[in-house]
Specification:
single chain; 4-stranded antiparallel beta sheet; elongated; 899 residues
Length: 899
């Protein structure tokens, strides 16, 4: 007997002596340790939801990405996509929808950093006129020339009555603002007046400002507002920057909840508008939520079905309960190990519990069924436990080691998330081994001594009918080969799908609107990033990027730096001093009821004159606007006439109005005085988007087409790297991490196979033993690939880790079958023993453990469940049909040779 076999048997013998001598102590120690681990983990074990921590920060592409985030800040936006239908009326309704939604989010600064859906003239800073054409600037200069006299009149005695009189003069034509005050100014002018009269009426009746704001009665900040429509005008895009909390599952959970509540409220206000929320953080949060729910349901289903299956096969509830108790101890110890070694679980390592349900419980099955076989043969409980441990222990130990190899194969990988899953999952399997070889036998011994098991024997402890199936091994093998040959074309169709969007659950709003963004717009929720140290470098790089057909949009600080500034500044310089001498700090005049009434009367007369003109012109819509204004003006007059003292309630309105107009004239003066616009002249909210903390400039590059398509992503990244090898951003990170994950999986599968083969060889020092043990695995994987090709099931970044796990469980079945086959004496048949039932049950528990994922909404998890169920089933057939057939052929060969 070789040294490894001796060590293996010695270890099992030591465990048995411990179990025989101290069964109660072992159970109590295991339970106490499990309780301590459970409580400690619940209190201190955290969940690290930061996806950036799934990759090594030393990877060059990840290091650049993190440096870019640190320099320019987090710019991962949520996108509210509002459909306009491409019509002007649709755009207007979409703009109202966006404004209403933004208003609801205005006071949510605790969870929302920024909301962007439009840009007004004031948002562009004092240099806004530099973006206009020279003709437009001249028109503006002419308008300012007419405004200047009005400004002087206003600041000589600013007040509500003065404003109403000036407005009446403009409407009647007595005051002149030049040709610039055309028909296009009618709606904004009437809207401002409507707002003012509405505030006045509300204040007179209720004594409060209706808007609840301290400024912007006239809405002058809205002048020149441009909404963020896509090029085809079919969508209006709102960008919302959420605050992130990596201590919670969804990272943006609070912000997402607030936005979705506000979005639903806004939908109720505008039932005819279709709008939805998407963006990378939303997709990630939805994926987290979906996978969390799916995995919880899958775990519950797995535990219940496995328990039910155990109850049926083991004929009662106690034996299954003992196995599940032992599994609970192992899982609790694993949580404690994770707390001590890592302190947190990541988005991948959190699935280890499901893995242990599917794999860890298998060890207990072999122990329990061999114990039952011993009891059925008339052995005492103590002797039955001893035989169970000594006979199945080596196989369980060897199977466990091969399973550990599958997980430990990823240790040291730069894909940190997977490496941590390997560490915790592999160690968890070790704990399952320890628990199933100590706690479970101790429980069986204690229960057996107290005669706690029912007197009747469990059903289906053997499978004699299978002997008939394998009794003609040559025919069976020919049928298997023929069926495999017919299905062979399926292997050629089995592939790898890199598209992360295809992993998401169908029907999710975030997925639906991500597709709409891709299909109907030039927008992208992903953008690559390049940086340059100076503005000239940005200009040269932008020109080079715009030559590449695959690039859709290039955004940089240049978008906000006007061209031909010198000639435009010369035009403005002519009127730079037109507003000199205005006293922007002039105090409001006292409010007198008679003055306000006279001013309201002047205004109503002007509105009535305008109403007659509009009636003659047949302007029905405009007439409705004027009629509403007259109603409000008459209501204000009636209130003041009845109670003149109520006019004092208009003081807040007047103060607000004076402040707003002072600010507007001051801004106008600054606009006229601008001589040039540099990056430093731009407002902070624009500079922060494109200028880093180190002064470098960011260039954002979005692709044309579906960036989720891996071939397009690959070519997009390659073209960018041809220009700048230091390019970073989401497309680069997703591309590189996808390749890294795939390569890690492939390496892990290869390394697992090598390690497993090495362990088998060191255990037996026999090549034939290794090959026989690998038969179920090789046959099972071959058939799995065929089935995948036929059914259209593909490998992806969510399910490829199934292969190392299948290697482990496929080999485990071969180990137990081969070990029991070698134990058989003359006349004994393999299927008259409990081993095939134990092995079959082990495969079934794995299928059940992962089978719950087939019900998952998340397509990635569902595909993982599909591969694990199909792969486990094919490996089981390989183990329970093909391997015994090979055994039969070997026996026939030996008989012919007289061995």
């Amino acid at each position: 007997m070789d040294i490894f076999k001796k060590i293996q048997n010695f270890l099992i013998l030591v465990l048995w002596r411990m179990v025989r001598s101290y069964p109660g102590t072992i159970v109590i120690c295991g339970l106490v340790l499990a309780i301590v681990c459970t409580v400690s983990s619940a209190m201190f074990l955290t969940l690290d939801n930061d996806q950036d921590n799934l990759l090594s920060h030393e990877l060059p592409f990840q290091k650049r990405n993190l440096a870019q985030i640190k320099n320019f800040g987090d710019q991962e936006y949520m996108f509210v996509v509002i459909e306009t239908g491409g019509t002007e009326s649709g755009k207007e309704q979409a703009a109202l929808f966006a404004s209403s939604l933004a208003g609801k989010l205005e006071d949510k600064k605790d969870v929302i950093h920024e909301v962007h859906y439009a840009m007004s003239a004031k948002d562009m800073g004092p240099g806004v006129l530099m973006f206009a054409s020279e003709d437009e600037i001249r028109e503006f200069v002419e308008l300012s020339q007419n405004i200047a006299p009005l400004g002087r009149e206003w600041f000589n005695g600013p007040g509500l009555a003065t404003f109403l009189d000036m407005t009446a003069g403009l409407l009647s034509g007595k005051s002149d603002m030049g040709g610039s005050a055309g028909a296009d100014m009618f709606v904004p002018t009437m809207s401002a007046l409507d707002s003012l009269l509405g505030e006045m009426k509300s204040s007179l009746i209720e004594g409060v400002v209706a808007s609840g704001k301290s400024s912007q009665i006239l809405g002058l900040n809205e002048v020149g507002k441009q909404y963020f429509y896509t090029k085809n005008g079919r969508l209006l895009i709102m960008r919302i920057l959420p605050k992130k909390d990596y201590a919670e599952m969804g990272v943006i959970g609070q912000a997402l909840k607030v936005v979705r509540v506000a979005l639903n409220q806004t939908r109720e206000e505008f039932p005819e508008i279709s709008a939805g929320l998407t963006g990378r953080p939303v997709l990630s949060a939805d994926e987290m939520s979906t996978t969390d729910k799916d995995m919880t349901i899958a775990a519950i289903i797995s535990i219940l079905v496995v328990g039910l299956l155990f109850t049926i096969i083991l004929h009662g509830w106690l034996r299954p309960a003992l196995v599940m108790f032992s599994l609970f101890c192992a899982m609790a110890w694993t949580f404690g190990f994770a707390l001590v070694t890592l302190g947190s679980l990541n988005l991948l390592s959190i699935v280890f519990a499901l893995v242990l349900v599917g794999i860890g419980v298998d060890f207990g099955i072999h122990v329990v069924l061999r114990y039952i076989e011993g009891v059925a043969a008339g052995l005492s409980p103590e002797k039955a436990v001893e035989e169970s441990l000594l006979q199945t222990g080596p196989g369980v130990l060897l199977g466990g080691i091969t399973s550990v190899c599958a997980f430990y194969a990823v240790l040291g990988q730069e894909f940190i998330g997977l490496a941590e899953l390997g560490l915790i999952g592999g160690t968890g399997i070790i704990f399952c081994l320890i628990s199933m070889l100590t706690v479970l036998p101790s429980l069986l011994l204690l229960a057996g001594r107290r005669n706690m098991f029912p007197s009747s024997q469990p059903r289906m402890t053997t499978m004699p009918f299978m002997e008939k199936i394998i009794s003609r091994p040559v025919k069976v093998l020919l049928v298997i080969v023929a069926l495999s040959a017919l299905a062979y074309p399926g292997i050629q169709k089995a592939g790898f799908n890199y598209n992360l969007l295809d992993l998401q659950a169908k029907g999710l709003e975030s997925v639906e609107y991500e597709h709409k963004l891709i299909k109907e717009s030039d927008e992208s929720t992903w953008f690559a990033v390049m940086t340059r140290p100076d503005i000239e470098g940005v200009r040269n790089l932008t020109a080079e990027l715009k030559k590449i057909p695959s690039i859709g949009r290039v955004d940089s600080i240049l978008n906000y730096i006007p061209k031909e500034q010198a000639s435009k500044a010369a035009i403005l310089k002519q009127e730079a001093n037109s507003l000199d001498g205005l006293n922007f700090s002039a105090k409001p005049i006292l409010i007198e009821s008679d003055q306000v009434l006279d001013s309201l009367e002047n205004l109503t007369e002007s509105l009535e004159d305008l109403e007659e003109k509009l009636f003659s012109a047949g302007a029905k819509e405009e007439l409705k606007i004027i009629s509403a204004l007259l109603d409000k003006a008459f209501a204000c007059s009636d209130i003041i006439e009845k109670s003149p003292s109520l006019a004092q309630k208009l003081i807040p309105i007047q103060n607000q109005l004076v402040s707003e107009l002072s600010e507007a004239f001051s801004w106008l003066k600054n606009v006229l005085a601008v001589e040039s616009v540099t990056p430093q002249d731009l407002p902070e909210h624009l500079r922060s988007l494109y200028i880093g903390r180190d002064g470098a400039f960011m260039i954002k590059i979005a692709p044309v087409g579906n960036i989720w398509d891996f071939d397009l992503l690959k070519s997009f990244v390659a073209e960018l790297r041809a220009i700048d090898s230091e390019v970073t951003g989401v497309p680069v990170v997703v591309f590189e991490s996808s390749l890294l994950m795939r390569n890690t999986f492939v390496e892990a599968a290869g390394l697992t196979l090598v390690l497993v083969s090495l362990v088998l060889f060191l255990t037996s020092f026999s090549i034939s033993y290794v090959l026989l043990t690998l038969v179920p695995l090789l046959v099972g994987i071959f058939w799995l690939l065929e089935v995948m090709g036929i059914t259209g099931l593909s490998f992806n970044l969510a399910n490829f880790f199934a292969i190392p796990v299948l290697i482990a469980i496929g080999v485990d079945g071969g180990v137990h079958f081969l070990a029991r086959w070698k134990e058989l004496s003359d006349g004994e048949r393999l299927y008259d023993t409990s081993t095939p039932v134990a092995v079959g049950l082990s495969f079934c528990t794995t299928m059940i453990g992962f089978g719950g994922l087939l019900l998952a909404h998340h397509r990635g998890l569902a595909s993982l469940g599909g591969i694990m169920v199909v792969g486990s089933a094919t490996c089981m057939v390989g183990c329970m049909v093909v391997l015994p057939v090979v055994f039969k052929l070997i026996e026939m060969f030996k008989k012919e040779r007289g061995v």
